[in-house]
């Protein structure tokens, strides 16, 4: 036996569940058949090397286990009946023969040796251990998740037909590699530190002067409000970090997943815990926290400036509106005077009366002069352009402008060089190096609307020049023409994408993970042929008046509204079923769903990876998020629970990733449940934003959303499958179009759903999203409002499409697509590989000026896909019904979410965006649990009704919904009843049954 096999693992990195998966047989039938089917050569080898039926079957079983899961079947372990039966049929040998196999240990040893000799399998040895230690160290530099490292190890040894060593050996090897990788990361982070820097880092754990808050916790604080004072405090935090003068490339050679994990751990720990770390780990953790904190502060500074600039424009608009309202009475008075004068002059012309006398008969010359003067005041430009009033708030910008421009390391693309030059000029002005603006100031960024304000008869107006600069700075940072070193959200656009060299290699090796033709001309030719054919088809239908459920009135396509397709019988059946569902408290419902799914196992400790021991406590925290009660109030409503316990558990176990993994378990259970197939195949989905008002602190920092008016709020943007499973949710920035976030839910959910077609409302689409949906393999079907006002685009100018001439907006710029095709594919590949999130790129691309080649090319590609969709919409009532049904499911789920999220008037009152995300995730997880619970018990009711002799029309079951909640007690004390525990396969009794 090898020496290393006797060593105990240095660190437990696998749960019992993980260990079982390593020797788990394939679950999918197709995969099982593929792996365990014996070839003619296999059967020939068995026949020529084995005597007797039992030996032949035993040889086949040993061979099958070496193939998958890659182990030698232990002497005392019985193979699964499924494998025995499958191999027996192939060999035409009774399965009972296995019981006779292995009576002679020598025979079994000979077979094992023979299989290894013939098929090339071999045992794991010391040399392999040393090789894989280094191999797994490289993997461990990318992730610290034990199961992923182990899976990578097993995947690689299978390539070389190396049999799995013992679980103990595997865990020991991977644990050792993980610990050494961790040490290497710590060394990389700390190697450049001077003694002075170490002293500064240690001082971060001490309290600030005249405060009980440590320097580190002060750095981690979010802005208390959005104003100049808070922004300056945040700038002070950034300057503090910069003055530590860490190496400029520190952390860049460390995988971001590992760096983020270390930073998260450090952010959760108290100063005392950090002091107890050994030196290397302490300094490495503090540096990781500083790197992440610095990036967050930079982004928050930029976003605060954005909101302040936005508030200035809002003030200017409101001021103009107020002044217009105040001058309305005077304006009416002056108009009345000039109207009388006009009538008097017209009458004088008819009668020959002296016009001066006619005027005097209406108004005195003195009053007329005053009226002209008053009218002149009413017609000044301020009354017609709100921008004139923005200078009233100049000193808001002046308070922080100098520090803002100096503390951010701004870089620019050629198109924004004048902005960068202006930044340098303003910094010199603020520092007193310049007394006034130079005569030849950079001005290419000054839009026409600003010109009269900046360039006046008396020279350049500095106030408006600075305000214009800050306004354009905001716009160009959003678009990506300007970027900031150290930022996450506002870095160089190239840094978001796969490096050109790596992408070129992928393209040359044909490993680009997109199902698209890599040749741009060939791709475009295919899409154009489809587009041309489809337009001709629609034109022919219009000419023959054959568009289904549609008509042409005054060159406008009128689509017949869809009728309610839910039969009355389905509504009656639904009421009967819900009347029989058991009454249940939300606490009991969550515990029962956890029994089915073990979703609580996914909320592992951030540092140790251990599961939560007290599941009731965890469920209390989750429920607190879902019902919007808050931890303190929740502790009061949950007997035997303290705020301190809930707060600690939230800090160490509640994260975006743990919520996502837990949700996936519930979604997968819902998807696999037989009854959910009545509602769909799990291949289509819809998404919609649900607005929640913000109150208290959040209200003061909320941004106005044009979709919802002036009341501030946030949106929980949720994706729901056709089986009612809400598989992804995200808190989205108000004021940003929903379309920005559509792809995130399709790409980044953790469930097993394979979505093929997706629906949104009008706010969910842009041409860029249409293009990316096609490139990433999704069918996109938004319900577009005012469809007639959206133009179609054709391959080239043609008279063949005369029936649609009023609807054609132009031709596709094919040249622009082909010129930028390589970059379009690189962009889509970067999204697919997770190099950058889809929402970030969609926001950046959408903000690009129209002359940007990539943005224009992607928009042109989107025009093709949007036109194809619109033509399908005209022709297909089935598509229209499908989209409407999908969106209705999302809206119905929003009603359930609103009912669950009822505390504190349904307002989001969390101080941080992170806590807002937890609220959205908790709410989504609980609604998913309700959906699953309802699905299970609706099936039980249907079975009960059938047992009672009632005929159930199967066609009506598709109209049922698992979104009801009247039978669920959502309020009251939240008590976790440990005495009521159903055994596996047991369910609650139905009402009145």
TrEMBL record:
<keyword id="KW-0238">DNA-binding</keyword>
<keyword id="KW-0815">Transposition</keyword>
<dbReference type="InterPro" id="IPR025296">
    <property type="entry name" value="DUF4158"/>
</dbReference>
<dbReference type="GO" id="GO:0003677">
    <property type="term" value="F:DNA binding"/>
</dbReference>
<feature type="domain" description="Tn3 transposase DDE">
    <location>
        <begin position="588"/>
        <end position="974"/>
    </location>
</feature>
<comment type="similarity">
    <text>Belongs to the transposase 7 family.</text>
</comment>
<dbReference type="Pfam" id="PF13700">
    <property type="entry name" value="DUF4158"/>
</dbReference>
<dbReference type="InterPro" id="IPR047653">
    <property type="entry name" value="Tn3-like_transpos"/>
</dbReference>
<feature type="domain" description="DUF4158">
    <location>
        <begin position="13"/>
        <end position="177"/>
    </location>
</feature>
<keyword id="KW-0233">DNA recombination</keyword>
<protein>
    <submittedName>
        <fullName>Transposase and inactivated derivatives, TnpA family</fullName>
    </submittedName>
</protein>
<dbReference type="GO" id="GO:0004803">
    <property type="term" value="F:transposase activity"/>
</dbReference>
<dbReference type="InterPro" id="IPR002513">
    <property type="entry name" value="Tn3_Tnp_DDE_dom"/>
</dbReference>
<dbReference type="Pfam" id="PF01526">
    <property type="entry name" value="DDE_Tnp_Tn3"/>
</dbReference>
<dbReference type="GO" id="GO:0006313">
    <property type="term" value="P:DNA transposition"/>
</dbReference>
């Amino acid at each position: 036996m090898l020496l290393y096999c006797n060593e105990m693992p240095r660190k437990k990195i696998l749960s019992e569940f993980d260990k079982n998966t390593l020797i788990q047989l394939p679950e999918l039938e197709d995969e099982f058949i593929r792996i365990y089917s014996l070839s003619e050569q296999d059967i020939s080898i068995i026949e020529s090397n084995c005597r007797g039926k039992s030996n032949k079957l035993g040889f086949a079983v040993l061979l099958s286990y070496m193939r998958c899961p890659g182990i030698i079947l232990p002497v005392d372990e019985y193979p699964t009946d499924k494998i025995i039966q499958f191999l027996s049929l192939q060999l035409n040998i009774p399965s009972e023969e296995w019981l006779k196999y292995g009576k002679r240990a020598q025979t079994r040893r000979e077979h094992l040796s023979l299989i290894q000799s013939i098929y090339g399998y071999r045992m794991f040895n010391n040399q392999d251990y040393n090789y894989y230690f280094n191999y797994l160290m490289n993997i461990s530099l990318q992730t610290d998740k034990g199961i992923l490292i182990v899976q990578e190890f097993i995947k690689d040894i299978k390539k070389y037909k190396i049999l799995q060593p013992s679980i103990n050996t595997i865990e020991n090897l991977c644990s050792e590699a993980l610990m050494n990788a961790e040490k290497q990361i710590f060394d990389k982070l700390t190697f450049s530190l001077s003694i002075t820097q170490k002293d500064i880092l240690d001082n971060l754990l001490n309290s600030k002067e005249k405060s009980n808050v440590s320097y580190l916790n002060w750095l981690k604080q979010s802005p208390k409000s959005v104003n100049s004072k808070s922004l300056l405090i945040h700038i002070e935090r950034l300057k503090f970090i910069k003055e530590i003068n860490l190496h400029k490339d520190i952390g860049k050679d460390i995988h971001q997943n590992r760096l983020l994990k270390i930073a998260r751990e450090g952010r959760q720990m108290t100063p005392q815990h950090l002091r107890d770390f050994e030196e290397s780990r302490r300094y490495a953790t503090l540096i990781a926290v500083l790197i992440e904190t610095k990036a967050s502060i930079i982004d928050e500074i930029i976003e605060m400036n954005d909101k302040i600039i936005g508030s200035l424009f809002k003030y200017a608009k409101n001021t103009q509106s107020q002044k217009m309202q105040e001058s309305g009475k005077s304006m009416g008075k002056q108009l009345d005077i000039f109207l009388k004068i006009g009538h008097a002059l017209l009458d004088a012309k008819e009668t020959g009366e002296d016009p001066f006398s006619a005027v005097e008969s209406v108004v005195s010359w003195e009053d007329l002069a005053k009226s002209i003067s008053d009218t002149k005041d009413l017609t000044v430009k301020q009354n017609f352009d709100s921008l004139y009033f923005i200078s009233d708030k100049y000193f808001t910008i002046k308070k922080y402008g100098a520090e803002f421009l100096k503390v951010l390391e701004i870089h620019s693309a050629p198109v924004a060089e004048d902005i960068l030059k202006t930044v340098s000029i303003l910094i010199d002005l603020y520092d007193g190096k310049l007394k006034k603006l130079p005569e030849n100031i950079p001005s290419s960024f000054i839009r026409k609307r600003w010109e009269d304000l900046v360039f006046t008869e008396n020279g350049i107006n500095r106030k408006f020049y600075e305000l214009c600069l800050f306004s354009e700075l905001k716009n160009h940072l959003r678009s990506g023409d300007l970027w900031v070193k150290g930022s996450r959200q506002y870095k160089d656009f190239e840094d978001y994408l796969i490096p050109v060299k790596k992408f070129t290699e992928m393209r040359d090796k044909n490993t680009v993970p997109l199902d698209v033709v890599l040749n741009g001309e060939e791709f475009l030719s295919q899409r154009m042929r489809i587009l041309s054919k489809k337009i001709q088809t629609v034109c022919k239908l219009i000419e023959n008046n054959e568009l289904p459920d549609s008509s042409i009135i005054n060159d406008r396509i009128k689509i017949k509204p869809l009728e309610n397709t839910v039969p009355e019988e389905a509504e009656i059946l639904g009421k009967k079923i819900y009347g029989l569902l058991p009454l249940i408290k939300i606490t009991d419902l969550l515990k029962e769903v956890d029994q089915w799914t073990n979703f609580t196992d996914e909320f592992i400790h951030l540092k140790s990876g251990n599961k939560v021991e007290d599941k009731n406590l965890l469920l209390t925290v989750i429920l607190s998020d879902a019902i919007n009660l808050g931890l303190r109030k929740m502790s009061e409503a949950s007997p035997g629970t303290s705020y301190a316990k809930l707060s600690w558990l939230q800090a160490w176990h509640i994260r975006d990733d743990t919520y996502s993994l837990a949700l996936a378990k519930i979604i997968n259970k819902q998807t696999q449940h037989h009854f959910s197939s009545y509602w769909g195949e799990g291949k289509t989905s819809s998404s919609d934003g649900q607005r929640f008002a913000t109150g208290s602190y959040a209200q003061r920092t909320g941004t106005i959303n044009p979709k919802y008016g002036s009341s501030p709020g946030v949106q929980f943007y949720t994706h729901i499958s056709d089986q009612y499973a809400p598989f992804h949710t995200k808190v989205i920035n108000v004021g940003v179009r929903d379309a920005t976030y559509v792809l995130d839910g399709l790409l980044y959910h953790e469930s097993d759903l394979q979505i093929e077609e997706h629906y949104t409302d009008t706010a969910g689409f842009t041409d860029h999203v249409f293009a990316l949906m096609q490139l990433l393999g999704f069918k996109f079907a938004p319900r577009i409002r005012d469809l007639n006002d959206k133009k179609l685009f054709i391959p080239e100018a043609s008279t063949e499409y005369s029936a649609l001439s009023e609807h054609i907006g132009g031709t596709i710029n094919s040249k622009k697509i082909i010129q930028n095709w390589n970059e379009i594919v690189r962009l889509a590949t970067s999204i697919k590989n997770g190099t950058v999130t889809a929402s970030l790129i969609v926001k950046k691309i959408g903000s690009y000026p129209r002359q940007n080649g990539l943005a224009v090319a992607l928009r042109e590609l989107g025009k093709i896909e949007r036109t194809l969709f619109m033509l399908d919409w005209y022709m297909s009532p089935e598509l229209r019904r499908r989209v409407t049904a999908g969106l209705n499911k999302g809206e119905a789920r929003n009603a359930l979410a609103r009912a669950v999220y009822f505390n504190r008037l349904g307002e989001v009152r969390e101080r941080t965006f992170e806590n807002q995300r937890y609220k959205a995730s908790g709410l989504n997880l609980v609604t998913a649990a309700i959906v699953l619970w309802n699905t299970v018990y609706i099936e039980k009711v249907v079975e009960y009704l059938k047992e009672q002799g009632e005929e159930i029309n199967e066609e009506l079951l598709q109209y049922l919904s698992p979104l009801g909640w009247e039978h669920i007690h959502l309020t009251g004390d939240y008590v976790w009843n440990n005495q009521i525990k159903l055994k596996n396969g047991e369910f609650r009794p139905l009402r009145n049954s």
